[in-house]
Amino acid sequence: MDSPPPAGRPGRLRLVPTRGARPVNRPVPVDNPGPPPRHELADVMRKVAQGDQQAFSTLYDALAPMVFGLVVRVLRDRAQSEEVTQEVMIDLWRQAARYEPTAGSVTTWAATIAHRRAVDRVRSAQAAADREHAQAAREHTTAYDEVAEQVETRLESEQVRRCLRGLTELQRQAVTLAYYRGLTYREVAQTLHTPLPTIKTRMRDGLIRLRDCMGVTT
């Protein structure tokens, strides 16, 4: 039972039946009357474990709004919350046979999976941001490092001022922000309202021109 049946009714998420495919986000119903009684959901889950697609549709209608509500309180982002809600419902389809009624209600089980998925998404996003920040810091400190060190020691000299005037406006602004104020590439990009790849290119070209102008060897 690797793939859940499509749940493509209007007004709710459409589950994509292929592993790894990006979800197609549709609104989660907000007028759902709430999950059926505990014993009824347990019976629905038993049928889902047997591959009953109609039972899964019933399960989806009963739990998706609750799952979405839990997830969106953690993520604070509707689009991401809809994606995670899909992931949770797929988990319920795939793991239905593992559900043990004696361990708790289906609703509690679904809520536990939803919370774990939402927290994992937050941690993943934070880890990606940390990696990007670390990479930016490495680029800032290593790109043309020998040139930068010599330039920094002579920023107040007339030669540096003359060479800076030979740069384009964007190159001059980027180099000045980086080496006078110590901003990272990303902070320079944000300050100048310019895409990060453009700033990296202008910084590289600007440092090369400074090196050539000042006669610095690497």
TrEMBL record:
<dbReference type="Pfam" id="PF08281">
    <property type="entry name" value="Sigma70_r4_2"/>
</dbReference>
<feature type="domain" description="RNA polymerase sigma factor 70 region 4 type 2">
    <location>
        <begin position="158"/>
        <end position="210"/>
    </location>
</feature>
<keyword id="KW-0805">Transcription regulation</keyword>
<dbReference type="Pfam" id="PF04542">
    <property type="entry name" value="Sigma70_r2"/>
</dbReference>
<keyword id="KW-0731">Sigma factor</keyword>
<comment type="similarity">
    <text>Belongs to the sigma-70 factor family. ECF subfamily.</text>
</comment>
<dbReference type="InterPro" id="IPR013324">
    <property type="entry name" value="RNA_pol_sigma_r3/r4-like"/>
</dbReference>
<protein>
    <submittedName>
        <fullName>RNA polymerase sigma factor SigK</fullName>
    </submittedName>
</protein>
<dbReference type="InterPro" id="IPR013249">
    <property type="entry name" value="RNA_pol_sigma70_r4_t2"/>
</dbReference>
<dbReference type="InterPro" id="IPR014284">
    <property type="entry name" value="RNA_pol_sigma-70_dom"/>
</dbReference>
<keyword id="KW-0804">Transcription</keyword>
<feature type="region of interest" description="Disordered">
    <location>
        <begin position="1"/>
        <end position="36"/>
    </location>
</feature>
<dbReference type="InterPro" id="IPR007627">
    <property type="entry name" value="RNA_pol_sigma70_r2"/>
</dbReference>
<dbReference type="InterPro" id="IPR036388">
    <property type="entry name" value="WH-like_DNA-bd_sf"/>
</dbReference>
<dbReference type="InterPro" id="IPR013325">
    <property type="entry name" value="RNA_pol_sigma_r2"/>
</dbReference>
<dbReference type="InterPro" id="IPR039425">
    <property type="entry name" value="RNA_pol_sigma-70-like"/>
</dbReference>
<feature type="compositionally biased region" description="Low complexity">
    <location>
        <begin position="9"/>
        <end position="29"/>
    </location>
</feature>
<feature type="domain" description="RNA polymerase sigma-70 region 2">
    <location>
        <begin position="59"/>
        <end position="126"/>
    </location>
</feature>
